[in-house]
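Morning. Coffee machine broken again, so started the prediction first thing and wrote up yesterday's gels while waiting. Chain of 607 residues, entered below exactly as on the submission form.
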Amino acid sequence: MVAISAFLLLVIFTGYLIIYNIFQISVAGDIRFYGLLKTIGTTPRQLKRIIRQQALLLCLIGIPAGLLLGYGIGAVLVPVVLRSTQLDAGITTISTSPVIFLGSMLFALLTVLLSCSKPGKMAARVSPVEAAKYTDAMQTKKKQRSTRGAKLHQMAFANLGRNKKKTVLVVVSLALSVTLFNALCAFVGGFSMEKYVSSMTCADFIVSTPDYFRFTEADEFITPEQIEEIAANTKASLSGTGYAVRKTAYLWMTEDALRQNYARYENTEQLDSHMSRMEHRGNMVMGDTRIEALDNSLFDKLQVFDGDISPMLKPNNNAIAIAVSLDDYGNLPNPEYYPKVGDTITATYADDVKYIDSRTGKLCTEDTPEEYLQAKLYGARDVEYTVCALVELPYSMSYRYGGAGYDAVLSVDTAQRDSGGAAIPMLYLFDTADEADEAEAEQYLSKLTAGEFSPLMYESKATARSEFAQFRQMFLLIGGILCAIIGLVGLLNFFNAMMTGILSRRREFAVLQAVGMTNRQLKTMLIYEGLFYAMSSVAAAFILSLAVGPLAGKMLGSMFWFFEYRFTVLPVLLTIPVFLLLGWLIPCMMYDNAAKCSVVEQLRDAQ
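Came back before lunch.
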């Protein structure tokens, strides 16, 4: 929410800057006209209304054009952005909601009215005498006389102080684009591919059936024969199989813990009814569970939050690990929900489960009310386990779906023993020793799983790296466009500032030329002004980056768990040659256009 608010404020401010400068130029160019209007009786209120009506007339043309242009750009950009992410479902529909257009229109109108209010006040406040000699200066501080003569760079620097507000406005608008560009580079550069990839997948390759990757229940996933074939054609430094226990199993847990789980989906009345239908043993209740078995080689993939998993590696063990859900920063948000390390927990395995009508004791029918449904187990037997650890089971090697109750991990030997051989291979994963082996395995699995009706699918770190690159590309695209827009606003403000200065000082320039200043000297002075603007903007951007960078990094780190802030001002330094070029080029262009008239004509026009 903070990031969105900051973005909206930035958009409002940049829009204000460009529109304000446009009206500032208009008022500065027509200031003598407004002075003449005041001499014939036009009131300040009427002058404000004139400028406001000019703004509204421009809005009648500009806002509809902007809405159409914005919709067109959105229609082109949104599919491009979605295609660079995993959000593209093949068909993209661009919203044409009137609310969006109405909100944009009101937003633009408010920005225009805010932007034209200050120039309107300036036109209303100026007197006819001041309008006749208006030169854009805002200070009357007494100047110190020098016997060494005026230097061009000193004159240029002094000119920046004639209207400090305008100078600050131009410098800030240019600095904002550089600061945003620096923040964008720090943001994108702070994305940690290692964190992202390790979260998306825990192995170089994970192979199973489409049913597994599409979260579909199945009686069989990848077969031992398929695993053997893959192992024979790939070079693995670590490999193993994850097993699904295909037998009804329950873990007994406290009613308070199960209530905490179900409270996310049911209200109090539904929860009480649900609890009343479940089998109890004192304060313990039989909760659904998902038990996954692992080869011993895969226990290294588990992140141990508490306890020790080594007891699970021993033969004939009765150790169990409870899978916990950690947040993106490795913290356990609800430790009271889980059993403690060392606790004894009971698992009930059943050959079959049916739902009966608790009123009659017979099998339920479609007409049986939900509150009378009760589970009845057939061939049930209890097994007691000791909780040896709380672990985070990587999503990529889990069932990939959850539910009420605990998720648990057993060694494959223990699971086969206690479930009566009901543990079936669910996935096969392996790591490779180097990039060459990884590339070979990628090529082999790509051919193996080719075709729409292939019985196998796979995920790889190469896929995750590709997704990461697309994700980063999306931010570069959006951020680059935003930087370009704000940079364009800054350049237009720079352009407007130089134009305003030249228009409002035509008489002054003509007088300087009349007393001996050459065209080259005048042009050099304006170039110095442009360079001072440019370097002041770079310095301001450097200071803003120093101040804003760490704060933005902390905020982004809380929003994106795979972001690691790294301070940098290299993008600011890279913009120095560009700004120096613009600081030289724009004043040259502006002066060459304004110097087409002779000194006499400039003096006559300035009267």
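Residues 177 and 485 are 8 Å apart (CA to CA). Going to sketch it on the whiteboard this afternoon.
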